[in-house]
Design brief:
Helices cover 47% and strands 10% of the residues. The chain has helices at 2-23, 48-57, 64-73, 93-101, 118-126, 133-140, 143-148, 173-187, 190-198, 203-216, 223-235, 243-250, 287-294, 320-337; strands at 25-27, 38-42, 83-87, 91-92, 107-112, 163-168, 303-306, 314-317. Helix 10 (203-216) crosses helix 11 (223-235), helix 10 (203-216) packs across helix 13 (287-294) and helix 11 crosses helix 13. The record marks 216 as: Important for catalytic activity.
């Protein structure tokens, strides 16, 4: 009889412990009214012990023993899946492990903008996803990969349209390229393609011109007018003479004032030397810059120069004489400020 009572007590104790281990809050334990969800990042190749170390390091776990107990009975210890997982305040072991075991990861927001080069892009993405910078760069520099999308290594970057995208944290470099190409195709709908055709440009050429417009001004309301200037020059097969393309050719973005010595560089990006558009974009143009080209102003301006008040806006001119007057005003302002 005593043995029966002892066994009953033991079974009851075990049942109580099991219930507590399964259903009591053990992950992201918080007290008070202001409770916040947290994200658990599990890198690829992480085993169960590695997961425990992550939970401890991020201070997401209260009782390791109970978590390991539930993980064992739920056959999770050998089934750790990489990903980003949402952990709610005071979430139970069973709830979290069900989530982790099924790979029920959340999407994260991937944002990139204000970038010039492929290196900049690869670095920005590697800061948000576990994609090594060199891995993405290798794909972007592969002629074979570029041809797959009907592009080349100069133009492959145009499929990356700056924005915020929802992606899985475990997205690979190749999967990201596929996703960006789908977003690129979605962006270039029938209406936009028709507008590009009306300008005598391909979508890629629009992107290249948009990158020049973006480099010329941060003023969205002025972008269509600047785009119109370059379209006027393209229509006459004249040199674009776009200063930002020369800066890009030098890969020296510290240049504030373009000198005659800069203009001698022999590069396909030097639009003072070669007519037409450069072979690729000189940055990653945002949607406002792309739309500015597609909806460019129709006018007779052939020149523009930064305003001498340093407002970020420009003076526009139809004739070289008028442009030279504007240029002298700006150069005088630069000299007065000691900008070289």
């Amino acid at each position: 009889m005593i043995a029966f009572v002892v066994l009953a007590v033991l079974l009851a104790s075990f049942a109580f412990y099991a219930y507590q281990a399964l259903y009591s809050g053990n992950l992201n334990v918080q007290i008070g009214e202001s409770k916040q969800n947290k994200i658990l990042y599990i890198p690829k190749g992480t085993n169960f012990q590695g997961l425990i170390e992550i939970l401890k390091r991020e201070q997401l776990i209260n009782n390791v023993v109970s978590f390991a107990f539930v993980a064992k009975i739920m056959n999770y210890q050998e089934n750790v899946k990489a990903g980003a997982y949402l952990i709610e305040p005071n979430e139970s072991n069973i709830s979290v492990i069900r989530k982790l075991r099924s790979g029920q990861q959340i999407t994260i927001k991937l944002t990139f903008n204000n970038l010039r080069t492929k290196e900049d892009l690869a670095e920005r993405i590697s800061e948000q996803l576990p994609i090594p910078k060199d891995t993405l760069l290798s794909l972007l520099q592969s002629e074979e990969i570029a041809q797959k999308y009907g592009l080349n290594t100069y133009t492959i970057g145009t499929i990356f349209i700056p924005n915020t995208y929802e992606v899985y944290w475990t997205t690979t470099a190749q999967e990201l390229l596929e996703r960006m190409y789908k977003e690129y195709q979605k962006f270039w709908n029938t209406e936009r393609k028709q507008k590009a055709q009306n300008l005598g440009l391909t979508p890629t050429q629009v992107m290249i011109l948009a990158s020049i417009v973006q480099a010329e001004t941060t003023k969205n309301d002025e972008k269509p007018r600047i785009a119109g200037v370059y379209l006027n020059r393209l229509a006459k097969n004249d040199l674009l003479q776009a200063d930002p393309t020369v800066v890009f050719a030098h890969r020296d973005f510290s240049i504030k004032r373009l000198l005659n010595s800069h203009l001698s560089i022999d590069s396909p990006y030097n639009t003072y030397k070669y007519t037409g558009l450069p072979p690729g974009a000189i940055n990653f143009p945002d949607i406002s810059s792309i739309e500015a080209v597609l909806n460019a102003e129709k006018h007779d301006y052939y020149y523009f120069c930064a305003k001498e008040d340093f407002s970020g806006y420009h003076n526009f001119a139809q004739t070289l004489a008028e442009h030279n007057r504007n240029a002298r005003l700006y150069q005088k302002a630069l000299n007065e400020k000691g900008i070289k």
